[in-house]
Hints:
By secondary structure, the chain is of the alpha+beta class.
Amino acid sequence: MKKILYAAFGAVVCILMGSCASSKHIAYFQNTDSVNVSASKGLFDARIMPKDLLTITVSTTDPKAATPFNLSVTNTLNSTGTLYTGAGSLQTYLVDNDGFINFPVVGQLKVGGMTKRQCESYIREKILPYMSKTENPIVTVKMASFKVTIAGEVKSPGVFNVDQEKISIIEALARAGDLTIYGRRENVLLIREDSTGMKSFHRLNLNDANIINSPYYYLQQNDYVYVEPNKVQAQNSAIGSSVTIWFSVLSVVTSVASLVVNVIR
């Protein structure tokens, strides 16, 4: 009986030691002192992709000059189903698979692959010929459908909208409540689709501070991030309810045996 008790005690010690050893995989950015951050210099600009929704506004000193270039919803239904006319809200432009939008007056414009600033300058050049020489139009472009998906071993998985059109992998995971203790920080999967529809897989190591130099540190619209479970969580998931009951019974038997040995002494 003593051998059984010693074996059980040894197993507990091994588990505790294993838990301590695995803690090195928990902390982010473990080697910051040895990382050259100069490679991370530069501001991120998202590029317009097929199926993006854009809101585009044109502002001029004379409001009438901008009216033809600002689409708005004027005919809408109220709660009773009655059609009425109001100021409405700006419509969105859907970028087609070839990167084009159909812009008022001007027609088809290819904006796919452009940054927001490039798109603004491009549209401004296209509408200038339709305005008086005294006008200096201001074009504002915003991505209305920038979102990323976080799934797996995080506290709050889901689809997250990004209003500022810029988000890092760390910020995205923070929005999802960060990784659980069972998430593999050294092997986070990123699935990305390019402008041609080609998908690619990328592995990110959050333990390594060099991740800030990665071209995948900043996420693009429609990126999918999956956090894999570690071995402990995988093993726990594999244990069925019947096995759990048997472990409980074994624990009770061991406790009773220990009590009997102490009484006999």
